[in-house]
Amino acid sequence: MLREHISTEAHHRCEYCQTPRRLIGMPLVIDHAIPRSAGGSNARGNLVAACYRCNEFKGSKTHVIDPATGELVSLFNPRTQNWSHHFSWANGGTHIVGSTSTGRATVLALRLNNEYVVEARSIWIARNWHPPQD
To answer: Rounded to the nearest 5 degrees, what angle is found at the Cα of 116, between the Cα atoms of 70 and 107?
Structure first.
């Protein structure tokens, strides 16, 4: 029940890469924005809908290096931050670009533009399934 509620609030998309559940081909998982290992709780305000790929790449990370500044920054938190403030679509929607230090660091840490997802996005774009229209 909680998983479906969180997924519905996320418009049935991964809150990190914005991939719709129907294109992933499997249910979204519940991710802790702040991992339990870093002191995060199971409270609703810390739970995020994520695809398996983003969840695995994120792991227990909370901070990573911004490639542009070399500074340690927090990863994107869908519960407290707005996706469109930190990210945008590029190359017709095949790539996610970080527009802030948090966005840039998250793109790299979660491998939001790995070769497999970029290839899949190309196919989805050809079918007019991507990028998400908000």
So the answer is: 20
